[in-house]
Write the structure tokens for this entry.
Amino acid sequence: MSDPTDIAVWRRLDDRITTSGQPTEAQIADIAAIGVTHVINLALHTHEQALPDETASVTAAGMRYTHIPVPFDAPTDEHFAAFCAAMDETPDAKIHIHCIVNARVSAFLYRWRRGVTGMDEAEARAAMETVWRPGGVWGAFIGDAEAASRSHLGPRPAA
């Protein structure tokens, strides 16, 4: 099966990691069908777009589920530490990481790729900026003082 690109803000980062906004119940099965074995959700279960019981949906599809509820207005180092632990628990698994619109995810992955995997800053930033250019608390979360002093921006314009 090919990637389920009909999922909102779908991104494939590499052979192991895919990301998106909130998948539907049917799209959970599509994610499993491409070989994903672990789903990490950074959104709140109380969000209006969240699935009624995502834990049950993901586990019924045969995948492991990790929920790290990150309030959009208050990401913390503790959230990031939990994310790193979830990534470390299944180092060879195919992982799908989502939130509501892939913004939280792209910022977490930017920080993880830079600080944990040692990815080049420009490459990690380019991947994040296909989704958005974080500002405010998210600028501070990714360690960008200039971004922390401004509002969020949309995806960077195509070159």
Notes: The chain is about 40% helix and 10% strand. The chain has a mean pLDDT of 96.
